[in-house]
Design brief:
single chain, mainly alpha, 5 helices, about 40% helix
């Protein structure tokens, strides 16, 4: 009798028998068996998962003497860097390569003849005389213009003081003054300059 009840236990756990053989149940049709793990709950309650117990991490043993020695080494390195002068980055454009500093590489100029030397000396004298006359002519022209300007201002002031003040007023829009001067080689009309290639060989220095 008890063995039969034990075998029928899982089937009759959520149901009870009424008089006359009728079987009544308060559980849903999909009710599962009651026997099982003690962590398992009913379908109408919240289910809790099995607790996971992770193995605690072992703390590393800190060697106080070793850590202090490492700090001392770092302090010595910092003091050494502070005492040393900062390393300057060289400018390669100002450094002449050694292959161009060879004393044997001396360009020998051909000796000039007496006639060529005399011609160059006379040409230099003529050029100096020409520039001297040009300078005197420019200074004389400037002096003449300044005197004419002063005379015109005097006459203008006698005519009208208002026009005189307007004439000597400073022109604020004159500067900055930009002007394109003559070129040694005038541009060629319709010339399309080719695009060149640039290879960057700049060295990168890190402190």
């Amino acid at each position: 009798m008890l063995a039969a009840a034990a075998r029928a236990g899982p089937r009759l756990c959520g149901a009870w028998a009424a008089p006359g053989g009728a079987r009544l149940s308060s559980w849903p049709p999909q009710a599962a068996a009651c026997r099982g793990s003690h962590w398992q709950s009913s379908l109408l309650a919240l289910r809790a998962s099995l607790p996971t117990r992770a193995q605690p991490k072992k703390k590393k043993k800190v060697d106080v003497k070793r850590e202090q020695a490492q700090k001392d080494r770092m302090k010595k390195k910092i003091k050494k860097l502070e005492k040393a002068a900062p390393e300057m980055i060289p400018i390669e454009d100002f450094i002449t390569p050694l292959k161009y500093s060879d004393s044997n590489r001396v360009r020998s100029l051909p000796p000039l003849s007496f006639e060529e030397t005399e011609r160059r000396v006379l040409l230099m004298k003529k050029w100096c005389l020409f520039k001297q006359k040009q300078d005197k002519a420019e200074k004389k022209a400037i002096q003449t213009l300044v005197e004419a300007q002063q005379e015109a201002l005097k006459e203008l002031r006698l005519e009208s003081e208002e026009l005189y003040q307007a004439a000597i007023r400073r022109d604020e829009g004159l500067f900055p003054f930009e002007r394109d001067g003559p070129n040694y080689t005038p541009p060629l009309p319709g010339y399309d300059p080719p695009e060149g290639k640039c290879v960057d060989i700049t060295k990168v220095y890190t402190q």
